[in-house]
Amino acid sequence: MKRTFCTVLIFYLFSTANSVNAQEQDWGALISGTYDAGYDSYWLWDSTRSVVFENDTMVRPILVTLWYPAKKSPQSSVMSTGEYFEIESKKNGLEKISLAYRNYNLDALTYGLLGKEAHELDETEREIFKAYLRQPTFVMKDAPIVKNDFPVIIYHQGFGASFEDNSILAQFLARNGYIVLGSSFFAENLEDMGVDGRNQSVKDIALLIEHAANLPSADTSKVALVGHSGGAQACILAKSGNIDSVQLVVAIETTQEIFGIADTRWKDFTEPVLKSRRAFNVPLLALTTHLASFQLYDYLTHSDRYYITFPQSLNHNEFVSQGIDAGFLDRKIHGESSTLYDQQDLVNYTKVNQYILAFLNWKLGNDSSAANLFKEDSYSLNMDFETPLVTQLTKGTTNVEPYNFHSSLPITPKQTWQLARSNHPDSLVFALEYFFPRQEKNPVFNDIFAFSLISQLLEEGDTTLSKRLFQFYKSRQIPISERFISIGRFSVLMGRQNYAVKCIENLLILEPNNETAKSLLKELRNE
Length: 527
Known about the structure:
The chain is of the alpha/beta class. Helix content is about 40%, strand content about 15%. The chain has helices at about 5-15, 95-115, 125-135, 165-175, 200-210, 230-240, 265-275, 295-300, 320-335, 340-365, 415-420, 425-435, 445-460, 465-475, 480-495, 495-510, 515-525, and strands at about 35-55, 55-70, 75-80, 135-140, 150-155, 180-185, 220-230, 245-250, 285-290, 305-310, 390-395.
């Protein structure tokens, strides 16, 4: 999402003395490890590319963010959060662009933490944000790197995020023996300094891997890509684009996992991956919610794939540390203490990171004991869906076993999609009707899952089954109509006007007398 920033106010928030004591989030096990974590950032140039900034064409600058295994020294000191944003440089004409990028990221941080742009903050929110910038991190600056051969991780933040959006994961990996590199990943035309997530990101990833060969203690024979949201999409695109040095990919909540391949919102991601899927020949770890069907990943048959799903209560941004911090600051603003719900989000975020570390240790470090975490789980009627679930697909396989009506096991999201495409739609409706009163927390009864399934069927031309499923969800008081409306409205905010129109048109196919949809469609067409 494109945002504007106010340079004067950002400077005020970043530099004014603070009278509020910083209260830190308790990250528990995520600040443990064999080493201390060090941090540095600096700018590189890619002379093979150019960008346009303020109507001037310049050689592409690359911000490098670097977390690494460190040891304390008399010169080292603990960083504050605000010091992540000390990225200004006056070298080689970088003064304007580095300042603009600092301001963009501080504004992205404000929005990510507080849901507001900097100029919208009230006095209490400003003071709390300033306190947040001044709180100590768990990394050191000016600390020497440990001499060893450490695997290299390229981390890519999501669309609209600031570059340190998952700093807790980065320092956690550094503490446990990994060098973590990130960048700015912005698009060629810098009207918006948010991440590109597509071709420019892929080239930046390749450049970071090349640059890592010059870093002390970096073992570039062991390279992994880790990304969140749009950054995860970029990592998959990069490996699909034949970057041979990459040995595994970790995709954290791209969002696309929940939706069908026919969904046009990710066409510029799914189509290139499918076209080049033979090149994706390394292990993939995908982490998202229980709603996922993983249709795209199922086609990556040259890869061993491990799917870890989490409760729907862990929302998209809470898969990164900034989202957990946002909940913490929200409670602080409203004078509230932590709830069991918030504590469980932190528990699940911790598990996300522990799965990632275990996967890296297994696949890059040959720690065979870590493989035990990735044994496949089975559905059962007594499961509560409040814990992570593991699914595996080995090379050469495209999907899970079809649903067996002779068993007493509940139907899974992937099996629901399979049955929807089979010649037995009556069987699918029967299964949903049978299990709804017995397992209402099953993700197949979630309105987002229902929207995804029905929308894909409509795109594939199966109006009859779409209507039957729509009526099933409506009759069970699942707010499927409201979900079509909300996704339509959200698509407008995201600049996807055509998709919004299609979304509401689909609802009217299913529910012709929906007056809210009629009114919204008229409004969208007039715009």
